[in-house]
């Protein structure tokens, strides 16, 4: 299909292996130095860039046309690796993934070179991503959103697009975050100029850009419940917290495997922190 439709890019939204089962067969070679044959197609990875939440691969496809004739094409694969099945990722991470994909693929994108989007079943996560992408494009062109209308159109083509209520709500949450925050990145060479701009106060709000951004971050910071941070609130772990009100959520903390006498504890008041190129590489 990739060859037949002359696709310029693949957006993959699932891991190959998750929840103790195969979610998607890997259709590219594991090592850059090797190539694999699939029928009359030879596949090789020319370049791979690994980031915190996704990989970018440049894939070369060679098709034998005859005895001594070959046709070679290259395409990009954007592989999002931090979206577990039946859950939702962070909105800002998906927005950055989509921004990066559009920036890189923009020059290649034509009507006769489509983008192929897939997850493990082609429904839930694919429908969410397509809805976000289409509505952001609609906002750029017509300054409006139509989540309901677009999803209704999607489901006329394929059932099961956006499988759960949480996924449907995630579309709105992501679009809201884009409206409130936009794209906060800027080129390094513009840093001095940005510092000056952010120091200027708004006439109406009396706030500069630093203050406005910090207030927005505080509003958007999720509020964790005691259940989210159950490990830190256990009686045998309370003494390990410098402040009983500042404890790590269980989903983001490292779990220790050391033994102390006859008692065992996996708790430490710390969390994993991503950087742009690696996931959970820092512990804070």
UniProtKB/TrEMBL annotation:
SMART domains: PTPc (SM00194), PTPc_motif (SM00404). Residues 95-169 form the Tyrosine specific protein phosphatases domain. Pfam families: Y_phosphatase. Keywords: Coiled coil. Residues 193-220 form a coiled coil. This is Tyrosine specific protein phosphatases domain-containing protein. SUPFAM superfamilies: (Phosphotyrosine protein) phosphatases II. Residues 1-178 form the Tyrosine-protein phosphatase domain. One of its GO terms (biological process) is neuron development. It comes from the Eukaryota. InterPro entries: Prot-tyrosine_phosphatase-like (IPR029021), Protein-Tyr_Phosphatase (IPR050348), PTP_cat (IPR000242), Tyr_Pase_AS (IPR016130), Tyr_Pase_cat (IPR003595), Tyr_Pase_dom (IPR000387). GO terms for molecular function: protein tyrosine phosphatase activity. It comes from Aphis glycines (Soybean aphid).
């Amino acid at each position: 299909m990739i060859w037949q439709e002359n696709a310029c890019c693949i957006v993959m939204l699932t891991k190959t292996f998750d929840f103790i089962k195969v979610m998607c067969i890997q259709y590219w070679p594991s090592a850059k130095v090797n190539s694999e044959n699939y029928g009359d197609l030879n596949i090789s990875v020319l370049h791979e860039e690994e980031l915190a939440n996704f990989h970018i691969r440049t894939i070369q496809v060679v098709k034998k046309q005859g005895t001594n004739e070959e046709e070679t094409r290259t395409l990009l694969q954007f592989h999002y690796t931090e979206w577990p099945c039946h859950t939702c990722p962070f909105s800002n991470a998906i927005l950055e993934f989509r921004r990066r994909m559009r920036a890189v693929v923009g020059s290649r994108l034509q009507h006769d070179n489509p983008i192929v989007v897939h997850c493990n079943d082609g429904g839930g996560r694919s429908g969410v991503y397509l809805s976000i992408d289409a509505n952001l494009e609609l906002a750029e062109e017509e300054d409006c959103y139509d989540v309901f209308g677009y999803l209704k159109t999607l489901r006329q083509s394929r059932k099961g697009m956006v499988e759960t209520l949480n996924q449907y709500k995630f579309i709105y949450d992501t679009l809201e975050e884009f409206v409130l925050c936009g794209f906060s990145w800027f080129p390094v060479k513009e840093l001095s100029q940005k510092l000056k701009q952010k120091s200027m106060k708004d006439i109406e709000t009396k706030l500069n850009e630093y203050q406005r951004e910090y207030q927005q971050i505080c509003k958007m910071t999720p509020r964790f419940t005691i259940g989210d941070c159950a490990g830190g609130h256990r009686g045998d772990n309370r003494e390990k917290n410098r402040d009983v009100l500042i404890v790590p959520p269980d989903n983001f903390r490292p779990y220790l495997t050391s033994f102390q006498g006859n008692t065992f504890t996996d708790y430490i008041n710390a969390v994993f922190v991503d950087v742009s190129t690696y996931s959970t590489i820092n512990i804070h």
